[in-house]
Design brief:
404 residues, Aspartate Aminotransferase, domain 1, Aspartate Aminotransferase, domain 2, 2 domains, 7-stranded mixed β-sheet, 17% strand, globular
Amino acid sequence: MFDVNKIRSQFPILTRKIRGKDFIYFDNAATTLKPQRVIERVNTHYAQESANIHRGVHYLSEFGTMEYEKTRETVRAFLNAKESKEIIFTKGTTDSINLVAHGFAASKLKAGDEIMISTMEHHSNIVPWQLAAEKVGAKIIEIPINKDGDILLEEYKKLLSTKTKLVSIIAISNTLGTINPIKEMIALAHEVGAEVMVDGAQAVAHQKIDVRDLDCDYFAFSGHKIFGPTGIGVLYGKESLLDSLPPYQGGGDMIDRVTIQKTTYNELPFKFEAGTPNIAGGIALHEAIEFVNEIGLEEIAKYEESLLHYATSKLVEIDGLTLIGTAKNKASVNSFVIEGVHPHDLGTLLDQQGIAVRTGHHCTQPLMDFYQIPATTRASYSIYNTMEEIDGLVMGIQKAKELL
């Protein structure tokens, strides 16, 4: 059974006080907290195992290589990829998307081609495609949404054409919490010959991802969004498509043979992993994924849904509060504005009460423009949050309103 107190006991940061108050953390969409087993795995690597991996013949190098590659297999199984060579380690979701965008600009795009992204995308899934399009004269096409925060699927179908070379879509909106119908969108894109990139940063800790069932061409996520370290991320790509992309960066480990005049490149996945990686982060990502596997994504989803429903029912009772993003299919995120209260002021006053929320445009400025607002306050919930903490958030908002 899901035991929130048992889960909370594994996160040492939850025992501390913030400004003399019990710490309430509702900024999980920005980054998740880290369980003790992940923290210990990072510490153990640096204290007992520190060595560079790959190509070393001494014990610590071989041991580190084994542990690092074990994580690759863990990720492969977690995403249900066909081969471990389809799992590329990166710095995070942003780095993964940039890798694919760079490869597309260099080998697959030409003037007049179209790249489709939605109104709700994170800047990390907008700017790399703009840079790619600018290099070759391709066009960015916007997939529209409605006021609830849902993709307009019929409009999406109309926009798809033989000019569409790539669709890049967020699986779950970091601002709205909308769970997008990515499987249907992928199938529709494939009908016109387009490839599909999925930004899975907000999805991996909340729902089961099966890349073969989705049939996505590329999928990206960050370790720190799933209780792992920062600075480690994943790009999944179909083997044939990764083979068709040129290297993103040059350096050690991504080479086969180097002469002064010519270089041939290593096989997958190392072709895209130039230089010394985040070894400790990569090894510790295994612990984070195993932590999630042991709880079970179905149990996580059920519990977080109960948190979302409870929080939504309480927030809508606050005078002057308007929820931004009311899609029927949502993850555990509430974004809102309060009449006469700037989100930054609210966030500051909540912080004085030990409550951490996120305020601002959440790296989704086109979405803010769509709703004609400068910013929102965002509360995002995870497996260690409780109904009592949500009550604390509601009381904190009421107090802040009175002060303002």
